[in-house]
Amino acid sequence: MADERSISITEDGPYVVTGSIPLREQSIAVNETGESIEWQPTKTYPAKKKYALCRCGQSANKPYCDNSHADEGFEGLETASMKPYAEQAKVLDGPRFKLMDQEDLCALARFCDTHQTVWDEVEKTDDPEVAAIFLDQIKDCVSGRLVAIDTATGEPIEAPREQQISTTQDPAEQCSGPLYVEGGIRLISADGKEYERRSRMALCRCGASGNKPFCDGTHVKIGFSDKE
User: In this structure, are residues 162 and 23 in contact, taking their beta carbons and an 8 Å threshold?
Assistant: First the structure.
């Protein structure tokens, strides 16, 4: 259907969003020691049936595209693998939960490092307190790099999510982050192929990721901001 919710990547251009997908802003909140603890809603953008989001990082009207990609000669070639997540992720065993990890999706939101790291915790998930913290950290992984698997059922632990797109802010690093895509929204490549639908994805909007269309954390390294 023409109005089905989807994100279409255009060649060397923006993300074209159709189907009246809500667009919001979320910010990483930290505790007194600077650790990432939760996503906080900070803004809601006006509802639109269709809109184009900047992918090059140069728009003067962020998060929307203003055609700066053409003026700047943006090269947005998609280099990420289209193989299913399960074929790319490493698996770490644990007594109650396993941890799946596809490292090249990391968006540097740092929820995985709060308390102990999830890589240390997975071996202790027979402790209910550790398991609860472990699952909470993974839930907030913006990119879907990390997925918890129930060892009893073999099924991933994924709570239902509303379909929405969020621009993200990282005050602790004084930068703006990727597009946080939730709820299994269709993502269509510039050549018309469909990426695996996932409950969580982080799409690059600084223009500099080496794993396009996905974020690889480069926004932190270059200090990308959509507030300029």
Answer: no
64 — alpha (psi -120 to 50), left (phi > 0) or beta? beta
pLDDT tens profile 167-200: 999 999 999 999 999 999 999 999 999 999 999 9
Residues with Cβ < 8 Å from 133, sequence gap 6 or more? 115, 116, 121
Cα 72 to Cα 1: distance, rounded to the nearest angstrom: 34
What pTM, to 2 d.p., does this model score? 0.95
Per the rule left: phi > 0, alpha: psi between -120 and 50, beta: everything else, 12 is: left
Q: Is residue 18 within 8 Å of 6, Cβ to Cβ?
A: yes
Tokens, residue 86: 């399960």
Rounded distance between C-alpha atoms, residue 157 and residue 184, angstroms: 15
Please, which residues have CB within 8 angstroms of residue 228's CB and are 6 or more apart in sequence?
none
Question: Per residue in 121-135, pLDDT tens?
Answer: 999 999 999 999 999
